[in-house]
Amino acid sequence: MSHPGLGATPAVAEQRLCALEDIPDGDTRGFLPSEHNEDRLFAVRRGGTVRVYLNSCPHTWGPLDWARHKFLAAPGGDIVCFGHGARFDVQSGACTAGVCLGQRLISVPARVSEGVVYLPAVLPTSPRQ
Ligand code: FES
Question: Residue 61: CB partners within 8 Å, gap ≥ 6?
Answer without folding.
Answer: 126, 127, 128
